[in-house]
Amino acid sequence: MNWRNAVTRNWKTTTIGSVTAVSGYIAMFPVGFTAEAVNLARYIQVGGFASLGLVSRDFDTEKRVPKDTRDDGIT
């Protein structure tokens, strides 16, 4: 797997994952952050997980059809 293609072709997933990771750190270790920042981080996490479900492609970066769902008559 080419890592450059995985990051650039799935830039939405990479961006959402990175933002969710930072907000997760703030939510898990709230010492030093304001209450508003912690609450915002929690909302970002919920939205981030929902967004990942919408934009993810189940490990398929090349838009290929999985072998078990091909309709080529071979069983």
Features:
75 residues, mainly alpha, elongated
What does this structure look like?
This protein has 75 residues and is mainly α. The protein has one domain. The protein has helices spanning 3-9, 11-28, 35-55. Helix 2 (11-28) runs antiparallel to helix 3. It is elongated. The two termini are 27 Å apart. The mean pLDDT is 78.
How would you summarize this macromolecular structure in one to three sentences?
The protein has one domain.
SSE order and pairing:
Elements: H1 3-9, H2 11-28, H3 35-55
Helix pairs in contact: 1-2, 2-3
Shape summary: elongated
Give the helix tally.
3
Roughly how many Å is the radius of gyration? 18 Å
Low-confidence stretches: none
